[in-house]
Amino acid sequence: MTDTASSYPLLRTINTPAQLRALPRTQLRQLADELRAYVLDTLANSKVGGHLGSNLGTVELTVALHYVFDTPHDRLVWDVGHQTYPHKVLTGRRDELPTIRHFGGISGFPRREESEYDTFGVGHSSTSISAAHGMAMAAKLKGEARKAVAIIGDGAMTAGMAFEALNNAGIAHGGLMGDMLVVLNDNDMSISPPVGALNKYLARLMSGKFYAKAREGAKSVLRHTPLYELARRFEEHTKGMVVPGTIFEEFGFNYVGPIDGHDLDSLIPTLENLRDRPGAQFLHVVTKKGAGYELAEADPVKYHAASGKFDPAVGFVKSTAPAKPTFTQVFGNWLCDMAELDPTLVAITPAMREGSGMVEFHQRYPSRYFDVGIAEQHAVTFAAGLACEGLHPVVAIYSTFLQRAYDQLVHDVALQNLPVLFALDRAGLVGADGATHAGNYDIAYTRCIPNMAVLTPADENECRQALYTGQRHPGPVTVRYPRGAGVGAVPQSAMQAWPWGKGEMRRHSGQAQTRGQGPARIALLAFGTLLYPALQAAEALDASVANMRFVKPLDQALVLELARSHDALVTIEDGCIMGGAGSAVAEVLAAHGLTLPLLQLGLPDEFIEHGDVPKLMSLCGLDAAGIERSVRERYWPATSVPSAVNQ
Ligand SMILES: Cc1ncc(C[n+]2csc(CCOP(=O)(O)OP(=O)(O)O)c2C)c(N)n1
Ligand SMILES: CC(=O)[C@@H](O)[C@H](O)COP(=O)(O)O
Ligand SMILES: [Mg+2]
């Protein structure tokens, strides 16, 4: 890491936005250049990587926002928040930036508990306008003079929630109008190339004489002009153009733009002008994702995020080492193979083509591939519509993002018992993205839905077989798998459906049928990839191990057989304990009046911070040592047997 003292002489003097605001305007360009270089340099040296393109694209916008608005008194609400590394640097976290997304380091997203300048916790997209509107109305109701600014990307703007907020924020409530500014950071990119009509609409606003004239005009009108004169001439200037009535004005916002989001001479006077205007303001800025770093500008998809250290001079180079296939790749390969077998298969992603492993499917089956934008609710109900007409939709969606479409899951898919397969990637802890992106809850929130089936494959081959099994099921199914690679079980090309609702034994305890003497005879019931640490722990415990495969329908016969032949049961899952697979087992035991001890291992009832997944799993006691320790603590010393068994 380059030492800030020598490499970033101006940036090292800025520890608060107040210090930034004390700078002469003429120094802001240098500050922005140093800030961009520092963000790039820091990320290039980070072993956990982080978001790159979007951060390089918001450097000038961030400098201008903190320069013009009295932060933190005025509230900046970032959308998604993956583009806030410059914001974090300018708000007192410059020297902590190298710790970003590391265990114990600062978060990769704004967090209220991390800084007063992080006014709203984000990570899931399209929440900023709603939150900023809330802050603006609160200021009004409390009689406080403050601005609320939402900074939302063109991708995030495709979510219904953003329009729910626009629909509400542009009008008065009880005669009160919130003073808020929405800044649309339009870089014509989501993670993948943007999709949908809105993108085309924004392109129209940016194209042709309107933008060209606005761009030139803005430069001439805005430079070194007193505010009143600025506002008058800017209005005159834009009036003179064929200014399209924008959709945003229809929502009650005063629309300004598009202006160049990298030109501080445009940004600052325009923001000053809008800062001092009451009511609902909307500024459309045009930026470039990856700005200032040629490789990222040229390939904004690839440079959306870095996965680890890289040499900026050569960029991201694929490692030559044969990597184990990730679960995502297993899914992507299965999807293409299944599409070959099943012509009714269609696949849907809510703006996560690359992350969900669907690039090849998109290339091979373009007419059966649907990227619906950041629109999880629409994705699920769109799938329901496809299924009503006899097609076989696969919705590839991160566990955490499916939370956004829960009612659609219940009301549109499960209640109608439609054959939709949900491929839930990023199930369980996800690591550097932290609590906002953890897929900890899908077992609990899906198994309680009637008609829903919940499959938990243990490795890469089981993932392929589970997807095949699920795809053949005539109702809604979720198949969940974690981020990254598994144990390396090579997926068999032949697809073999599992016996529906059946688990399998993977180890039998050597303990004789004790019932009251000697070490307890324990059965470990593993759901998903924790089968493997469970098998390791079982060697030390001489425990039986069941690979349950299904949370729903649960293999009740297996549960009852294990309960009757063992002294105690232990369930293990990489999902929340509360309401999870262990709870399903507990319900079966209770329903059959069985009172043998049951230990439920899984993720605790707390949000788990970002960090290295193996370390986090160990902290949660979900590695082999942790499982063994928990079982011994509960069911040992060696010779004692749980009292409940003596009954
Ligand atoms: C609800 C939700 N769905 C999907 C994502 C994944 N995601 C993160 S950033 C992103 C693209 C955002 O595009 P945009 O808002 O234009 O920001 P940019 O990266 O272009 O700066 C997506 C789809 C998310 N964070 N939240
Ligand atoms: C900001 C955002 O939500 C995405 O970029 C997310 O971080 C991707 O996660 P993966 O890296 O697990 O694909
Ligand atoms: Mg964008």
Automatic annotation (TrEMBL):
<comment type="similarity">
    <text>Belongs to the transketolase family. DXPS subfamily.</text>
</comment>
<dbReference type="GO" id="GO:0008661">
    <property type="term" value="F:1-deoxy-D-xylulose-5-phosphate synthase activity"/>
</dbReference>
<keyword id="KW-0784">Thiamine biosynthesis</keyword>
<dbReference type="InterPro" id="IPR005477">
    <property type="entry name" value="Dxylulose-5-P_synthase"/>
</dbReference>
<feature type="binding site">
    <location>
        <position position="187"/>
    </location>
    <ligand>
        <name>thiamine diphosphate</name>
    </ligand>
</feature>
<dbReference type="Pfam" id="PF13292">
    <property type="entry name" value="DXP_synthase_N"/>
</dbReference>
<dbReference type="InterPro" id="IPR005475">
    <property type="entry name" value="Transketolase-like_Pyr-bd"/>
</dbReference>
<comment type="function">
    <text>Catalyzes the acyloin condensation reaction between C atoms 2 and 3 of pyruvate and glyceraldehyde 3-phosphate to yield 1-deoxy-D-xylulose-5-phosphate (DXP).</text>
</comment>
<dbReference type="InterPro" id="IPR020826">
    <property type="entry name" value="Transketolase_BS"/>
</dbReference>
<dbReference type="InterPro" id="IPR029061">
    <property type="entry name" value="THDP-binding"/>
</dbReference>
<keyword id="KW-0414">Isoprene biosynthesis</keyword>
<feature type="binding site">
    <location>
        <begin position="155"/>
        <end position="156"/>
    </location>
    <ligand>
        <name>thiamine diphosphate</name>
    </ligand>
</feature>
<protein>
    <recommendedName>
        <fullName>1-deoxy-D-xylulose-5-phosphate synthase</fullName>
        <ecNumber>2.2.1.7</ecNumber>
    </recommendedName>
</protein>
<comment type="pathway">
    <text>Metabolic intermediate biosynthesis; 1-deoxy-D-xylulose 5-phosphate biosynthesis; 1-deoxy-D-xylulose 5-phosphate from D-glyceraldehyde 3-phosphate and pyruvate: step 1/1.</text>
</comment>
<feature type="domain" description="Transketolase-like pyrimidine-binding">
    <location>
        <begin position="325"/>
        <end position="489"/>
    </location>
</feature>
<dbReference type="InterPro" id="IPR033248">
    <property type="entry name" value="Transketolase_C"/>
</dbReference>
<comment type="subunit">
    <text>Homodimer.</text>
</comment>
<feature type="binding site">
    <location>
        <position position="82"/>
    </location>
    <ligand>
        <name>thiamine diphosphate</name>
    </ligand>
</feature>
<feature type="binding site">
    <location>
        <begin position="123"/>
        <end position="125"/>
    </location>
    <ligand>
        <name>thiamine diphosphate</name>
    </ligand>
</feature>
<keyword id="KW-0479">Metal-binding</keyword>
<feature type="binding site">
    <location>
        <position position="187"/>
    </location>
    <ligand>
        <name>Mg(2+)</name>
    </ligand>
</feature>
<dbReference type="Pfam" id="PF02779">
    <property type="entry name" value="Transket_pyr"/>
</dbReference>
<feature type="binding site">
    <location>
        <position position="376"/>
    </location>
    <ligand>
        <name>thiamine diphosphate</name>
    </ligand>
</feature>
<keyword id="KW-0786">Thiamine pyrophosphate</keyword>
<keyword id="KW-0808">Transferase</keyword>
<dbReference type="InterPro" id="IPR009014">
    <property type="entry name" value="Transketo_C/PFOR_II"/>
</dbReference>
<feature type="binding site">
    <location>
        <position position="154"/>
    </location>
    <ligand>
        <name>Mg(2+)</name>
    </ligand>
</feature>
<dbReference type="Pfam" id="PF02780">
    <property type="entry name" value="Transketolase_C"/>
</dbReference>
<feature type="binding site">
    <location>
        <position position="293"/>
    </location>
    <ligand>
        <name>thiamine diphosphate</name>
    </ligand>
</feature>
<keyword id="KW-0460">Magnesium</keyword>
